[in-house]
## 1
Amino acid sequence: MSRPGSFFMRMGLTPGQIAMHAFLLACAFAMLFPFYWMVLTAFRPSQEVFSATFHWLPQTFVGFDNFREAFAKAPLLRFMANGAIICSGILAVQLLTAIPCAYALAKYEFRGRNLLFALVLFALCVPVQVPALPLYMGLAFTGTLDSYFSLMLPFFLSVFAIFLFRQVFRSFPDDIIHAARLDGMGEMEILWRVVVPSASPAIAAFAVFSITAHWNDLYWPLIVVTSPELAPPPLGMMYFSDTDLGSSFGALMAAATLLTAPLTILFLFAQRHFVQGVTMTGVK
Amino acid sequence: MTMVLSSHPIGRTPRRRLGAEIAPSIAYWFATPSIILLVGTMLLPIVVMIAMSFTDYELGALDFSFVGFDNYVSLWGDKTFWRSLLNTAYYVALVVPASVIIGLVLAVMVNGLKRGRRFYQIAFFLPVTSTLIAMATVWKYLLHGKIGPVNHLLTAIGLPGMEFFGDPSLVMPALAIIGVWSLAGFNMVLFTAGLTAIPQELYEASAVDGIDNPIERFFTVTLPMLGPTTMFVIITTSITAFKVFDTVAVLTRGGPQGASDVLLYVNYLEGFQYMRIGLASAITVVFLGIILLLSLVQAKVLERKVHY
């Protein structure tokens, strides 16, 4: 006779563990319910949305009708392409500027180093909403509002990246740098070919962190962008939900599904970097 | 990653650096792009912003004059400003305890599992990475007064349905629910890092002392050891919650009847919709002051953490 008890025990499932799983599954259900509801509604006909009864699954199958409607109503792919352009532009400049600066702070002795580091620490605390007004005015006066450049400008400098990479570079052994110098490598070459590859986990974690932050940012795009064809996903979503919402919850949820999908997929493939990225903000 | 979280003593071990041997000009070349950006997109704008808070400048106006503290005086007497400050504080007071406690409980329970940790970590972290604006529209639907499943649930268990975004007394709690949902997983990850840093011997020692009950163990070992992490998470969450803007801008626009006016939203309206740059700058100065105060507390906490 098989004894389920011993089977559970072998699986490491004591009554205490089972109780914890039950509790956590209930929590996971609550946390994931909005995602479920979003996808469900994206596949439901609109009359079901307004019915007063609750159903776990669509009662009539409408296929991708809501998605077709969403695409017809707004340039969703354009929004996503904008998000990709903005995120990659920001990330590229952030890495190109922050890495050398962090290396200088970590490994060189120069006048003003402590002042620079103090300013970095100060800037770490300042959210984008603080310099927003003068930046907006500067862009307005130079006629560069409503462009990709204006969308990226405030984020080109990441003091968080400087702070983070400085920590990582500090632990890079000086002897290796010395040896590379004796081999006749230039300082620039040492940085990019010897030191940077060793920091790739931190760079990956920062990249994921940066992409998430700027893909999801609403505040700054809302301020500088007026033409819909430049809108990144959150702003596009806002336009979308502003146009007649009442009749088409299905299309709205289809749009939400599409615009959340890229980051969700990125997250599922790079969870480790995400988690590391969060943990690193612990120093922020 | 725990190493990074537990922070570094900054410049505590003075050791000779490599750069001392070579011309430091290369260091300046390395730092220059960042310095230009730091000055141009951060420091200079802040100085300009503070200066503008003492003027009556409006965007598009041809001239302006210095008005001293007038903007601050009019803020002091402005009902909308105080309401937005109170609403923001109310939001922080709702979101911080809930998201910190949920984050802590989830971290401790997931950490105590023998199997399936990864699954739960993914499930709880998913809301953090999702595009909040998109998910906010989903939440608006979930909490909808007539067709929202939350109201279906409420009526099913015999409670009256609630018009979350139409009722001035319910709108901040409704926004807070979304805030907690999007932050709890973040806090869970921070607590998990704190938990893995607790030495196993402490648990063994507590077992020797006869503490076997998991709840007792949580209060005698885990919680005290998580003290600094908890402080840190509380302040980080406070800063994030204080910056609430997205959900307000998309879902409520300050309504109904100004019940969800929050500081950054009012600031946004003053500066970028009504173009009253002087007044908006004064609000921004207040905002910056509060953020810096919170950051100062955070820095103190981090400093203390080093000594643990």
Note: The first helix of chain A runs from residue 4 to 10.
## 2
Amino acid sequence: MGYRPSPEGDGASAISAKIVIAGGFGVGKTTFVGSVSEVPTLSTEALMTEVSAPVDDLEETPDKTTTTVAMDFGRITLDSELVLYLFGTPGQPRFWFMWDDLVRGALGAVILVDTRRLSDCFPAVNYFENDCDVPFIIAVNQFDDAPVYPLEEVREALAVGPNVPIVNCDAREGVDARGVLTEAIKHALAVTG
Amino acid sequence: MTNNSRKSARVRPYLVTGGRTRSRRPLLLETLISVVEFDPALEKTLIPESWRIYELCRSRQSVAEISTRLKLPLGVVRVLVCDLSDQGRVRVHATSIDSEQDQRDLLERVLRGLQTIS
């Protein structure tokens, strides 16, 4: 009796979640986010102050440079009360200090891999294996001119355990990207137990 | 307006909003913010940046979207949103790390959602 849908789904129970898309510079993270996002890929800028002097230095003004780091992200509205965000990590290794902020609360992560430049993703693999507890999967972004390797060979080359799912995808295809996200969530469910 | 989220009022040590500890929920990049009840008179009392955030959040926005649309650094957005929240002007919505959120439920909901739109 008397129940009414909340106006425009803008009620207090709305919730958001995120999946992080990691990988080396130029591996297709922005393309991946763009192919599934319902809005054009957005970019937010985090103003960073890099201190190049030791923290304990009592000198009056340590050398500081202010750097702007851009993070690409996209949005998928899953139902009127649930919004999923995708965040691409900044590719340059020197911005790693901000990964903790980016990754906090993530349901899962996808590490995109380009088989022609496999080592570019090693830092991301290291981070998710050692420095945080967000469940991750590997997605090989199959570039048109890249050789196709069996996924088990990729696994061996990356030295990730058998418990980490590895899938193929074409980051330009929304269907593929959604498939990868689905795998990431399934994996998160599996390890959540 | 109900203000009964006292249950989850435990202080979270990693709050990133300039050391303030009164916000009940941490402001992640994806945290949704919405105006509780729009009051145009606030234009006179809020600082311009806060007013712009307030106005934008008449429709639900994430912290990252606020930063992008208003071209404000994330750190600034977090502090100002935190203040607006303390004043009861905006609602800070739940995320996966909300203390009352069942992680498994949320994952299943996201999975269903992804499969539906596929």
Note: The first strand of chain A starts at residue 15 and ends at 23.
